[in-house]
Write a structure and sequence with these properties.
The chain is mainly β. It has helices at about 50, 125-135, and strands at about 1-10, 10-15, 20-25, 35-40, 45-50, 60-65, 75-80, 80-85, 110-115, 120-125. The longest helix is centred in the C-terminal third of the chain and has 13 residues, at about 125-135.
Length: about 140
């Protein structure tokens, strides 16, 4: 599976390329937004992944716009630096252990790869969008 890889100190986040519409540099070093911000005139929800992962000290370096097939609202991920584009073989991605199934945090991931010193968590973009919709409805 082809992914964009982002570094989050103790783990890497793999974002499936088939879910990405576009990517750009985040140039506003001073503005580090809240976890979820909906901007109506853009019809976009911006998600600060460092805040979502409780790592607000990690600086946002890239915008990653997810493909939008069903809704008017576009989801834009604000992430740490995308350090590379790489392939992760399907056989190297394992399901998230069932012990974490009750935690909403791990519902955001489709799998895990532990071949390197830091685990690689494979983002579940659809699960993330559903999570955001539930959180913003509260």
């Amino acid at each position: 599976m082809r992914v964009f890889l982002c570094d989050y100190e103790d783990f890497y986040l793999a974002i499936p390329m088939h879910s990405v519409a576009s990517m750009a540099l985040y140039l506003d070093e001073e503005a580090q937004p809240d976890m979820f911000t909906y901007i109506e005139y853009l019809q976009s929800t911006f998600v600060s992944l460092p805040h979502l992962f409780n790592l607000p000290e990690n600086r946002i370096r890239h915008y990653i716009t997810l493909k939008n097939d069903e809704t008017e609202n576009t989801t834009v991920l604000l992430s740490t630096e995308v350090i590379c584009e790489t392939d992760i073989p399907a056989g190297a991605i394992y399901p998230v252990p069932k012990i974490f199934s009750n935690t909403r945090f791990f519902l955001l991931f489709n799998g895990i790869n532990v071949a390197s010193c830091n685990p690689i968590l494979l983002l579940n973009p659809e699960g993330l969008v559903q999570f955001i919709q539930k959180e913003m409805a509260l």
